[in-house]
Amino acid sequence: METITKVALVTGANKGIGHEIARQLAGLGFRVFAAARDPERGEASAAKLREEGLDVRFVGLDVTKTASILAAARLVDEQAGRLDVLVNNAGMGILRTPPAVLTADDVRTVYETNVFGVIAVTQAMLPLLERSAAGRIVNLSSTLGSLEAASDPDRDTSSAAYATSVALAYSTSKTALNAVTVCFANQLRATRIKVNAACPGHVGTDLNGFAGKRTVGQGAREPVRLATFDADGPTGGFFDDAGPKPW
Ligand code: NAP
Description:
Blueprint: E1 6-10, H1 16-27, E2 30-36, H2 39-51, E3 56-60, H3 66-80, E4 85-88, H4 104-129, E5 136-140, H5 147-150, H6 160-165, H7 168-187, E6 194-198, H8 216-228, E7 238-240, E8 243-244
Parallel strand pairs: 1-2, 1-4, 2-3, 4-5, 5-6, 6-7
Antiparallel strand pairs: 7-8
Helix pairs in contact: 1-8, 3-4, 4-7
The chain binds NADP nicotinamide-adenine-dinucleotide phosphate.
């Protein structure tokens, strides 16, 4: 097998922050498997990055489908033999429906992608990450998942940020994702694999109808830092580009 310097897989890489994380990692010399659930859009977005001279390959991956996850892991194994970085970026949200109205099925749907999808993808990719000299797992979380921030009695309840902070499905899915991050980090503490959660800030993407003021370039910065720091870096933490965040 050819020698590849570094190998990364980014889920939900066909657009938004995930596409930019794929671009930045490839710019740092990674072979990036840009994973997406839609083959046409996934291949087209990977092709755009290849046109920039980057080593980016599309891999089909719906994080809610076991067969798709296992097929993606097999493809990475065949084409690279290991993984150095896994970025669990794919996510969805129902942001504006108040908790009293949202159905339990709606919540389940969001958890399938934002929580159970991350668990299943991480488990499938772990054998490949264990072959890395410095495995890194980064989970895309959100300030909205912070219980400390959400329960602050001094919060401005008239703001748009407050409206989304009561987004039952999305916010609690990210709180659960933070807990998932800590569980995997603790299990892997004695290994070379580090696991952290990153908040990209409020970035203008499809997820929020482009309401976010930050660019995808700014949003990708912290996930990429957590994907590429050295052996002295943290594990089991929650960060944005201003530093550690409260749980
Ligand atoms: P986005 O532009 O809507 O991108 C979301 C990506 O996730 C898309 O590629 C989407 O694919 C993919 N995805 C959704 N469900 C999937 C599934 N079942 N299998 C595989 N891929 C799936 O949103 P974004 O803002 O870039 O969000 C990226 C991550 O950042 C998310 O985890 C989000 O929660 C987090 N985040 C974003 C913000 C923000 O302000 N934007 C703030 C905090 C955290 P399709 O195109 O096929 O739908």
